[in-house]
């Protein structure tokens, strides 16, 4: 199939990451397909060294590099990128990723070609993680990604809008303009949850395909736990924003567990039990063999503290 009548804008927000290799791989694929395309990069006030490295990409054909003077967060960055896009289909990617195969762009183009309603598309490609174990002190984030985020398309399709991840997705520009990211969510995490809900409210069910990118993040456990706290703060904010809170609770395991504890009047007992073992739990999370079960308890404890 030829794709030369399809135009795509590849949109990447950058924060403290060198995207040189990623842009080279994407440009090579798009050039080979002979399509109308652009790659727009927006740096969200990274450290100076990253800015200097990535700014050089502005000189490449079809690449535009933009830079924020101060950090505004992922939601604002994505909305800004979409507003700069010239083509009817948008591919959003995180910056700390790498392309897994030579058909990444063409896989999305094939999905557009065969879509029944090309004007109302939202397609998630999925994410994978390297099988190489990271250094000590960075294992929890990698292990969580491997066990919880690395799901095949069939599994993600069981609950399509609540399985939606913004790491890697394609969307029709006109749909994005109807939904956009909620800029009240300035912290890290769960902006994809709210975005998926807003898509559903517009009658758009996310299509899930096998077109993963590899998430290359090597995040310290300390930083990941801070991000976890921020994501739960966002989740609490989302729970006050959504029209159907019961649906959010039903489809979000953490909220569902919390509500169950609350309804059974067991939150106080859970908190007391957690305090007894909190030092052992945090020691495990920072160990070479962190437990995802204990990580889930850590999240539940934080939610109980702040709900």
The CATH topology of the largest domain corresponds to Spore Coat Polysaccharide Biosynthesis Protein SpsA, Chain A
The share of residues in extended strands comes to: 5-15%
Helix content: 40-55%
CATH architecture of the largest domain: Alpha-Beta Complex
In angstroms, what separates the terminal alpha carbons? Answer: 52 Å
Count of beta strands = 10
Structure in a nutshell:
This protein has helices at residues 20-33, 48-55, 74-84, 104-114, 139-149, 153-157, 173-179, 191-201, 221-241, 245-251, 253-263, 267-285, 292-306, and strands spanning 7-14, 36-43, 63-67, 89-93, 97-99, 122-124, 127-129, 168-172, 207-208, 213-215. By secondary structure, the protein is an alpha/beta fold. Helix 9 crosses helix 13, helix 10 crosses helix 11 (253-263) and helix 11 crosses helix 13.
Describe the structure.
This protein has helices at residues 20-33, 48-55, 74-84, 104-114, 139-149, 153-157, 173-179, 191-201, 221-241, 245-251, 253-263, 267-285, 292-306, and strands at 7-14, 36-43, 63-67, 89-93, 97-99, 122-124, 127-129, 168-172, 207-208, 213-215. The protein is an alpha/beta fold. It folds into two domains: 7-219, Spore Coat Polysaccharide Biosynthesis Protein SpsA, Chain A, CATH 3.90.550; 226-306, no CATH class. Strands 3-2-1-4-8-6-9 form a seven-stranded mixed sheet, with helices on both faces. Helix 1 links the parallel strand 1 and strand 2. Helix 9 packs across helix 13. It is globular. 34% of the residues are buried.
